[in-house]
Amino acid sequence: MTDMKTTIKSVSIDLFFRKGYFATSISEIAAGCGIQKASIYYHYPSKEDLLFHIMNATMTDLTDSLRRCLSGETDIEQRMRTAVREHVRFHLDRQKENFIANSELRGLTPEHYQVIVEKRDEYEEIFQDIIRRGTQAGVFADGDAKILSYAILTLCTAGASWYKPAGRLSVKEISDIYEQFIIAGLKKGNFGPMRGA
Amino acid sequence: MTDMKTTIKSVSIDLFFRKGYFATSISEIAAGCGIQKASIYYHYPSKEDLLFHIMNATMTDLTDSLRRCLSGETDIEQRMRTAVREHVRFHLDRQKENFIANSELRGLTPEHYQVIVEKRDEYEEIFQDIIRRGTQAGVFADGDAKILSYAILTLCTAGASWYKPAGRLSVKEISDIYEQFIIAGLKKGNFGPMRGA
DNA sequence: GTCTATAGAGTGATAGAC
DNA sequence: GTCTATCACTCTATAGAC
User: What range does the domain containing A94 cover?
Assistant: First the structure.
């Protein structure tokens, strides 16, 4: 990977984040890199391929970091706490890429779309597994693991996208709020009426 | 409002939802309506204006329905339960428009953007008010009302966008899951460590 | 590895006939 | 209220020089 290939990628991440994939043109990316638009095609075969590379790297790194953080942790509640904190950390750390990965799926070719969706499913499955084990162990209340995993992930992902480094809350404070809210929502005994489905 | 004006709006909602605003062309909208693209401009001055009309009507109706549902309800916990259920119901009922209103803000002119963001803030304020009153009354645990309101709203909004009418869960079941999860997350006494901020 | 030049298609929007 | 025709422009991508 030459330096220019890296520059193109990071300029694209910035533009796709700010303007959206479809609203960003190859000329703008080129201008941001200080080269002519034709030169982009020496490094990437198409605009869509550039988007795919950004998303694919993000999804791979995301799953890898979570797996690394969870390895060795056996307590169910702790696994969920760790997973939530790591998800928030990763999304805050790479805010722009994650925002793109969550909002620009429609820009992908059907083949690339499938690759990304499979990686997303694989990641979500890690959360669903924790929820199912927690329910079986009687630590978490009964509930639909898929729906609850979507709820947890959307919550944290969205939280990371509001975050502004100069804002009034620190990364630790945000993580704490979500961790507390989610564990309270999942745990057995914290009832209102009953959990449906 | 002539019939064709309504048709253009509903065809646009469908296309903006499926393909996104920038990826949808005026010609496609016209084709979907069975007219020529120039005829669109008799009804709407521009593509952006069409987007604004869709978003603006959605936001107005959203706030109006919530206000109507909450009027007369004084119990804090019940107000939150009602607000959550109504938010989910509205978002399921008008899934496409709500998805557009949440994802296509970048397509608006600065003037129209401001109008929509103000309406969104006004709607969120209703939730923040319930949270603050609940905290003061000692029903809900201490926590940042803004962050918690974003969390609650994102959760329910996202839930509505996964929903498929032919899926395995009913509207009632989905509402129940979220209502339970959110109330458990908010209530005093359902602690893990403590809530930050 | 980057350039200039351009192909080929599509875009939002307008003019003016009917 | 819808049509045909077209303007003025932008877009992604490619060819070929250096």
Answer: 47-186
